[in-house]
Q: What sequence folds into this?
């Protein structure tokens, strides 16, 4: 009966997404589908969301996978009242949106589903762990099973890690090459501040979805320019203290109360969020899809604390459902994805930056300029923004202003990206307009 309730809730919550369009990366993979070897391979790519079929069927598959994750939470954590309510809260939690709604984020849900199957069934664990590690997010995630009763299934992991190592390393190196800058590859003690702050932010967002958006201002450009770097490394930030006290509180709880469902839930969270804590960044500084798997542990931990307070359970569920319905509309199409991002977090310069691209693609040059100027006001040392402003000014015939901005852009090239930046500047001087995203 509980499984039926969980499944029904998910269908009711996400039924409207069947009318939604493709957004962001969905569009590029739809228009440029990968090559498949046979029908089986084509179906496999579709399940992974690497191949797009139709908007309706793709959204349906995403909803079914998210529903399966919620049902496995119930089964894997004991099929009891705690795991039942945790499954309900996880189902509705809007912080999960980049895997529960966004088609291209389905891989994060699939990896989570396979990890939960490993926790639930030792007999299926060798196969589900193998599948989990196929995904980059799932490569190290099985370490979350260390604190479970089925920790012994990790005996398979050395072989599984060895098997997927080349693929994992190739993907990480590719991400590092395209997104990592010099500061990201350095380790110093201040990086611990960054990591603790990131943990505090994700934990807060899992519990209370105060800001749901595709582009967050939190830690933006933390390695890209000095202004944002100073802001990122300061301890005068509530999320640093939330992260620090949550870790201290968790360790204290274990010491005084022992190892129980709350202890394990938070252990799951810390282990699965650790690769995205910015201690060594090879990806976007902050994205909600990174905490989908970690949110399983948070919901288990939360419910284990408030299970004897039915009013609180209803309050959290109501809050999540209400917030989900006010934010899921951003996935209705690609236009609203960006518009809602700016409305939700107007301090995110990259949201304004992408908004400028939308205007540029519609040949609204002056509107594009306005958007990039807004991004520049938020973060005045962004090479991409300065360069794009120079390009649009040149297009509008304002050559003197364009030269001023290209000089500013050249003065703010991010260390480690000199070659690509100089190539773009060379193109600019050759009367081409190679806009930078």
A:
């Amino acid at each position: 009966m509980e499984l039926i309730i969980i499944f029904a809730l998910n269908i009711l919550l996400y039924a409207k997404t069947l009318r939604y369009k493709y957004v962001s990366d969905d569009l590029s993979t739809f228009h440029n589908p990968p090559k498949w070897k046979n029908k089986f391979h084509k179906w496999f790519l579709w399940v992974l969301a690497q191949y797009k079929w139709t908007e309706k069927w793709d959204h349906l598959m995403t909803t079914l996978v998210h529903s399966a994750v919620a049902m496995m939470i119930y089964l894997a954590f004991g099929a009891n009242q705690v795991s039942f309510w945790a499954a309900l809260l996880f189902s509705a939690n809007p912080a999960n949106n980049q895997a529960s709604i966004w088609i291209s984020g389905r891989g994060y849900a699939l990896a989570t589903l396979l990890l939960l199957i490993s926790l639930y069934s030792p007999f299926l664990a060798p196969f589900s762990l193998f599948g989990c590690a196929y995904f980059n997010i799932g490569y190290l995630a099985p370490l979350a099973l260390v604190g479970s009763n089925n920790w012994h299934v990790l005996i398979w992991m050395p072989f599984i890690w060895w098997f997927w190592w080349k693929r994992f390393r190739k993907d990480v190196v590719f991400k590092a090459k395209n997104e990592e800058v010099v500061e990201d590859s350095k380790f110093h003690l201040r990086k611990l501040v960054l990591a603790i702050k990131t943990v505090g932010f994700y934990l807060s967002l899992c519990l209370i979805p105060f800001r749901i958006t595709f582009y967050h201002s939190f830690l933006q450009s933390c390695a890209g320019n000095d202004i944002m770097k100073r802001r990122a490394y300061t301890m005068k930030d509530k999320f640093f203290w939330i992260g620090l006290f949550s870790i201290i509180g968790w360790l204290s709880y274990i010491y005084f109360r022992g190892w129980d469902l709350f202890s394990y839930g938070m252990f799951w969270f810390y282990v699965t969020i650790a690769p995205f804590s910015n201690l060594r960044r090879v990806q976007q500084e902050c994205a909600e899809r990174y905490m989908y798997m970690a949110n399983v542990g948070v919901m288990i931990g939360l419910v284990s604390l408030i299970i004897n307070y039915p009013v609180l359970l209803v309050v959290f569920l109501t809050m999540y459902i209400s917030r989900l319905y006010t934010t899921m509309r951003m996935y209705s199409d690609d236009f609203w994805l960006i518009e809602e991002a700016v409305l939700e977090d107007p301090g995110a310069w990259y949201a304004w930056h992408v908004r400028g691209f939308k205007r540029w693609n519609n040949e609204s040059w002056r509107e594009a300029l306005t958007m990039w100027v807004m991004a520049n006001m938020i973060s005045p040392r962004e090479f991409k923004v300065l360069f794009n402003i120079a390009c649009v000014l040149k297009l509008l015939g304002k050559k003197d202003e364009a030269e001023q901005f290209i000089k500013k852009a050249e003065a703010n090239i991010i260390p480690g990206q000199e070659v690509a930046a100089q190539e773009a500047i060379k193109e600019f001087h050759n009367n081409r307009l190679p806009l930078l995203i």
